[in-house]
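Problem 12. The chain below contains 267 residues. Write out its predicted structure in token notation.
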Amino acid sequence: MEYDFKYKVVVVTGATGGIGRALSWRFAKAGARVVLIDLDQEQLLALQNQVERSGVEVMSIVCDIVDKERCQQAMREIEDHFGGVDVLVNNAGIGHHSLFQETSTAVIRRVMEVNFFGAINCTKAALASLVARKGMIITMSSVLGYSPMICLSGYAASKHALHGLFNSLRAELLNDGVHVMIACPGKTETDLRKHMLSGDGQIIEVERSKIMASPNEVAEAVYNGARKRKRLVVHSKASKLTQLLYRYFPAYYELKQLKPAQKNLKT
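Solution.
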């Protein structure tokens, strides 16, 4: 049975970013009541006003998902306003671009705090409501959640950790009627690459890949996967090929994908 998002309360973290914004609009288009969570109040209010003009009920909350107490407070605000949470979309995240030996532990810790522990904070805060309403958890991972890549060890580690956590949580919630889905986009045209952390924590911009999906394409794939209650959504043929190659032919994957990337670092 497909999941109907009409009138459901859908909470999207990292809502003003490329994929987060597209997801917010897609669930709004499906008739959901959308809660936008992010750090930038000005961008949040601008997005809220835009979505509201489409006739959808929206609220926005400024929240740093690394702050456990603030996440709990945010969920209480949502319950006071909408009565509870039906769908939690763990989308907020940051990245880094640096070789492991040139990356400070503080940078890797920061990536884990946002990408992994931020998702934990939001999920724990919303879980009682999700169980009561037999809702859904959607966690945005990455193609790097199941395959490696040069200069992204900390980011890949955070995404691998999400898979371990939410696959286990799915099993724990099996009898509670809460569906858990993990989504793995590949390279997507967002501002994430413009705000990557360097090895010493500086903000840097990384060169754009030649082939990238649009946020709207990713959002559509995530929405359709959630509607069909899929456990895993891997977006794009390239990402699916990467998944299969690394699972069944890891040595070949390293030869064809990782060695050229490593060579480019030296040129």
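Discussion. The chain has one domain: 9-266. Students who got a different answer should revisit the alignment rule from Section 12.3.
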